[in-house]
Amino acid sequence: MTTSAETLEFQSEARQLLQLMIHSIYSNKDTFLRELVSNASDALDKLRLEAFRDKELQVDTDDLHIEIDTDPEKRTLTVRDNGIGMSRDDVVALIGTIAKSGTAEFLKKLKETKDSAASQDLIGQFGIGFYASFMVADKVTLLTRRAGSDEGVRWESEGEGTYTIETVPDLPQGTSVVLHLKPEDAEDQLFDYTSATKIKQIVKKYSDFITWPIRMTEGEETATVNSMKALWARSSSDVTEDEYNEFYKHVAHDWNDPLETIRLQAEGTFEYQALLFLPGHAPLDLFMRERKRGVQLYVKRVFIMDDCEALMPEYLRFVKGVVDAQDLSLNVSREILQQDRQIQLIRRRLVKKVLSTVKTLMADENPYKYETFWKEFGRAVKEGLLDDHENRTAILDICSFASTNDPEKLTSLREYVERMKDGQEHIYYLTGESRQSIENSPHLEAFQAKGYEVLVLTDPIDEMWVDAVSGYEEKQFQSVAKGEVELDDDTTDEQKEEFSGLLTWLTTTLSEQVKEVRLSSRLTTSPACIVGDTNDVTPTLEKMYRAMGQEMPQIKRILELNPGHPLVAGLRSSFADKGESEGLAETAELLYGMALLAEGGELGDPARFTKLLATHLQKAL
Ligand code: ADP
Ligand code: MG
């Protein structure tokens, strides 16, 4: 029975992507075939797995394969698989909408991108799958039947806003995608996708490693056109960089080359092969809740699962690739994997290998790969400083930070330590919201005067790990905005004596705002700054917690004064001469407000501050 066809609208994101594809400026149109073959291969993997798990399922798994047909007369190209297929609901959900997280961001970025090279790059990063068909076709017909169901589905669209969908009887299991090729490409040999020779070339180039047979029939003869060899099972000397790159595109659903390929093999009692990739760019969902991890698990060449979280820790979630283990059971579940000792061993080795690979990139003469890696993934990697105690040192080794040494360049900790001055005991850092506010912060003054380098940490995660990680190469991390600094103190006992009355009075006067007022050895040019106790939460972290909706008690910090500054000296003599007064109390309040502003903080009562300031300026006229 055939139901009448319904016309439905594409979801709006999907519609925008389709428009993009129809009017595509993407230079490499051939990639549409890679996407269709990649989907067909995934569908065969899924069917094999489902048939294995569910013995009741009425499906035929005898001859799983992909077929490509061309019809030069009708100008069609068909990619067919006898895989898992889709139900009507599946088609609406999977083809009619884009469920990929980060789609909205992608489209927004694309809109903002003006030049075409940059938009191509973005399109490549997003990895548009099925819709790539519309680069070469002006109409696409999809026929599909979900394995185990009797009901087939026919879907058709010209890519312009709507599609038709109807239920049809008697379809073979699996999916056929029929592309009605654009007439304008007929003239151009380069885009003659009805030519079997052309198709074979494309398959060889992009899909040779697909482990299912890809067949083509020419005349009477049917031949398999791919070698079907799993890349990770081939000896690495046999595999070209291009082949690795194309394989990466298949597993990662990315259209760009990876930054680095990592191979790992273990023989012996527990045999496995791993083929991992560091992508060239971060996925749009790297910091989203629904993000996935990118390693697939195979058992003896059989695909078992995507997104195998047991194989890669959270902080390395951007690593893509495949692990093929020989001795696992085919019906291993995620829960079992989490407990499995051998999987844990594999994971430990993979992690170490990824970290050591990055370290090698770092040592490379050409800084491009490491710099790209760090720019794209550094923020995620630093999460490992909190989560992965075992590899903390290895992670610290591959970190880079902005520093006061050279505003143009990031520094590794090793380089920092090598530059440390005689007598410098700590690795100094300052956290904050922006580079600029840190670099202008009064806290840095004495450190810069002494030539001590300070790391400039602006990622939210930096606020967390600096508290968790004690040191690097026996040097402790020390915030320049926390605790007492022991830069050889040139405040004399005499000064301390002189100031003690003022400090006691100020501590009481400003008790709403600070817990103590004391003299500072951090300052050279500013009159005052605010510092925390060693274990105090920093203002940025306090703000972050509040933004996350966490209740925070108000944290009082310490006001430090520069005894050498004329304003502070004047305050002292005025207090010594005339004792406390409302005018002095206001000056103290202004001093506190200035210190807060100088570190990029926000005033509790800006209106009051400006009013006080205006009054005092007036008096000075
Ligand atoms: P992706 O492969 O990155 O998920 P695609 O646009 O290529 O994105 O495909 C969208 C979804 O449509 C796939 O995830 C899959 O569920 C479904 N799909 C596409 N082609 C097939 C096919 N040949 N057989 C079964 N399902 C398919
Ligand atoms: Mg796909």
Automatic annotation (TrEMBL):
Can you list the GO cellular component terms from the UniProt entry?
A: cytoplasm
Main localization category: cytoplasm
Annotated region (C), positions in chain: 544-621
Locate the region A.
1-334
Q: Where does ATP bind?
A: 35, 39, 81, 86, 100-102, 125-130, 175, 334
Asked if the keyword Membrane belongs to this entry, the reply reads no
Query: What are the record keywords, sorted?
Result: ATP-binding, Chaperone, Cytoplasm, Nucleotide-binding, Stress response
One Pfam family hit: HATPase_c_3
Output the Gene Ontology terms for molecular function.
ATP binding; ATP hydrolysis activity; ATP-dependent protein folding chaperone; unfolded protein binding
What are the residue boundaries of the Histidine kinase/HSP90-like ATPase domain, all occurrences included? 28-185
Q: Which SUPFAM superfamilies does this UniProt record tie to the protein?
A: ATPase domain of HSP90 chaperone/DNA topoisomerase II/histidine kinase, HSP90 C-terminal domain, Ribosomal protein S5 domain 2-like
Statement: the UniProt record of this protein carries the keyword Nucleotide-binding? yes
Q: Where in the cell is it found?
A: Cytoplasm
Question: Whom does it interact with, and what assembly results?
Answer: Homodimer.
Q: Which NCBIfam families match?
A: PRK05218.1
Family per record: Belongs to the heat shock protein 90 family.
Q: What is known about what this protein does?
A: Molecular chaperone. Has ATPase activity.
Q: Report the protein name in the record.
A: Chaperone protein HtpG
Species lineage: Bacteria, Bacillati, Actinomycetota, Actinomycetes, Pseudonocardiales
